[in-house]
Design a protein that fits this description.
This protein is an alpha+beta fold and 290 residues long. 39% of the residues lie in helices and 28% in strands. Strand 9 and strand 10 (155-172) form a beta hairpin. The longest helix is centred in the last third of the chain and has 30 residues, at 260-289.
Length: 290
């Protein structure tokens, strides 16, 4: 009975402490930034300290000493598909981002243990390590910031900036092999010919194969945007008269759908193909005479 009474008193004391806590903003609030790189979702979770009139690099954060690259806890990098960071391959999962700031060069370390504070980091936890050159920012950044810049279809730069210093490193997702395998599988089993043709067209692959797929996608008529893609493929193959005929079909479908964007696209494509066909005609006539 006495033990039970002690336990009840202890629980009540904990409850009072919990209820008595004050909710206030964190000095270094947490933040999350996410970017699609190729087919990979790349997410950075970190805490954001501010300068508050302090000298940061070379003072608050000494040069040549490992830093958790944020406040409170190690910055966490999460990737959903295989990527390479500055040439080193990383498989899907969670990682910690550590840095060693320097006056003229920074070392970036991608660690496998997201719980290890900077002082607890060990080299056997390393997934990637590389050096980058810092840049001097045009204007000071008060609050430590991670961002994605120079975003392309399969790559981006992870950029950090604070005080007067900026550092960036490149992340790449080699999505092409997976997309090609996906196309091969799905075009054999499902009606995804339009998507496959569009991918080939956008990435300058085998246009004859793209035309074959878009013909299958539109063999029963097709939507205005599907027919328009066929016209684009024909135009790129140099079949200007065929492209004009197809674009006219897409134009009528676009008008029926009241889609002003594709009406304009088709009218522009028709005009361009007519000009190219006209320029091509004298050359073909000369060839016939010979």
């Amino acid at each position: 009975m006495k033990k039970l009474l002690v336990s009840v008193i202890f629980v009540c004391a904990i409850a009072q402490v919990t209820l008595g806590q004050i909710t206030a903003p964190a000095p270094s609030p947490g933040a999350t930034v996410t970017q699609k790189v190729g087919i990979a979702d790349v997410t950075i979770n970190y805490s954001r300290p501010s300068m508050k009139g302090r000298k940061i690099f070379g003072d608050l954060l000494p040069f040549d000493k490992i830093w958790r690259t944020g406040a409170n806890a190690p910055t966490k990098l999460t990737i959903s598909d295989t990527v390479s960071i500055e040439g080193t391959k990383l498989t899907p999962g969670d990682y910690a981002i550590y840095t060693i700031p320097g006056a003229s060069e920074w070392t970036v370390i991608i660690g496998k243990n997201t719980k290890a504070q900077a002082q607890d980091y060990k080299d056997e936890q390393q997934a990637a390590r590389f050096k980058v050159k810092p840049t001097t920012l045009c204007a000071p950044v008060e609050t430590f910031t991670f961002d994605f810049t120079d975003v392309a279809q399969g790559s981006a730069n992870i950029t950090l900036s604070w005080e007067n210093t900026g550092v960036k490193f490149k992340i790449v997702n080699d999505y092409d092999a997976k997309v090609m395998a996906d196309i091969k599988q799905k075009t054999e089993n499902t009606n995804t010919y339009f998507q496959a043709a569009n991918y080939y067209y956008e990435n300058n692959r085998d246009l004859k194969q793209a035309l074959e797929w878009i013909n299958k996608a539109t063999e029963k008529g097709g939507m205005f945007f599907q027919v328009y893609l066929k016209a684009e493929i024909q135009e790129k193959l140099g079949d200007y008269n065929g492209a004009i005929e197809t674009a006219n079909k897409s134009l009528e479908l676009s008008k029926t759908a009241k889609n002003d964007d594709y009406i304009k696209r088709n009218e522009t494509l028709i005009a361009e193909c007519k000009a190219k066909a006209s320029a091509q005609a004298p050359t073909e006539t000369k060839k016939k005479k010979k």
